[in-house]
Each structure stands twice: as structure tokens, then as C-alpha cells.
Amino acid sequence: MPQFTIAIAEHLIPGLQTVVERYNKDTGSDLSVTAWITLHVQELAVAEQLVAEQTRLQQQSQTDLVAALTAVRDRLIAGEPNPATGGDA
Questions:
Q1: Has this prediction a pTM greater than 0.70?
Q2: Is there a domain that residue 3 lies in?
Q3: Which of 27, 64, 71, 89 is 20 to 30 A (C-alpha) from 10?
Q4: How many domains does the chain have?
Q5: In angstroms, how far apart are the furthest CA atoms of the chain?
Q6: Which long-range contacts (CB under 8 A, 24 or more apart) does 9-15 make?
Q7: Assigned domain for 48 exists
């Protein structure tokens, strides 16, 4: 696996540690600064793919929702019990 070395100015380390501590608190994680940087670089590397998958899943969800509502509408019009309540239309 390729490895990269980065230089971070000494005066920036306390601020970076504060950011990582806040992230760990917010997420229940226990990442070191190195692990936090690695995670976020990896997330940046796949960000476009995640956005594309989110879009695809939202579109599929919308399609599924419309199909389900159409099926419920058709059953209610046909006089079948309301599937949401188990009762009459």
C-alpha cells in the first residue's frame, strides 16, 4: 500500500489535537491524530462514489415509495382493508 508523509507545522498540532478530540467525543471513537488523518483522507478519496450511491439509493427509494403508494391506492379503491390500519378503507 502506498504511504505518504506530510509535514504539519508544530504550532498547528494543538489545534489538530483539539479537532481530533472533538471528533472522538462526537463519534465515540478513540482515534489518534494519525488514524484520524488517514480516515479522513480515505473518506475524501471515496466521497464522489458515496455521493453517487446516495443519489442512486434516494432515487430507488422514491421509485419504491411511488410503487407502494400506487399499490395501496389501488387496493383501497378496490375496497380492500387499509394495510396501514388493518381496518376498512
A1: no
A2: no
A3: 27
A4: 1
A5: 73
A6: none
A7: yes
